[in-house]
Amino acid sequence: MHRFWDKRYQKEGVYGKAPSPFWVRELERVAPSPAGNRLLLPCEGEGRNAVWAARNGWTVDAFDGSSVAMKTCKRWAAEAGVEVRTHHADAFEFEGDVDGYDVVGLFYAHMPPHLRLPFHELAIGWLRPGGRVILEGFEPRQLGLPSGGPKAEAMLFTTAMLSEDFTELEILKNETTSVVLDEGPYHQGPAHIIQFIAEKSA
Ligand SMILES: C[S@@+](CC[C@H](N)C(=O)[O-])C[C@H]1O[C@@H](n2cnc3c(N)ncnc32)[C@H](O)[C@@H]1O
Predict the structure, then answer these.
(1) Domain of 101: which CATH number?
(2) Ligand 1 binding pocket includes 109 (Cβ within 6 Å)
(3) Could you report the per-residue pLDDT of 61-104, keeping only the tens digit for each?
(4) How far apart are CA 126 and CA 130, in angstroms?
């Protein structure tokens, strides 16, 4: 699996270099403060969202199973003059900061069906009390569109599925939306996505 991704990341900028507009909008609402500035990006790829967060005052950890992507992420951060703590790790081996994170950003982190719930449970565990998950990914109407995402329906997100997976959090947003993606060659064109935010009780 990680070999598939290493191959994809041989070319740089496969999901673009600019952050997701949803990430920018939502992170600006929860600006970093001395009490809350720690952020984790699992399955972060080349670091488009990580570098933007670091440039905006967050202390950022990012991991990905692709060593090629993590090298690019490190370099993009250095070129931007910021630090992103990169970890070449599988989601099920990554340990993270023991104090937890104020924000966990899950962007297009689609897992095979048997791993999705365990992965989301890990994400809940990485949050500190009061922290929030910000998630964006494809929903089933995306199937058949050439603008990105897994080609198997079982790997896509529904609002009902996310409500169940994150039931122990307070769900603040859980909506499907149609957008036109312009995020590198692999996220390009009209697309159907879910945007989701949930908060762990303090
Ligand atoms: C579609 S890409 C999204 C990358 C990035 N989040 C973004 O939005 O630009 C999915 C990423 O998940 C990573 N990934 C998939 N399964 C993983 C796993 N079990 N552990 C760590 N990373 C994984 C892949 O290496 C790939 O970089």
Answers:
(1) 3.40.50.150
(2) yes
(3) 999 999 999 999 999 999 999 999 999 999 999 998 989 999 99
(4) 12
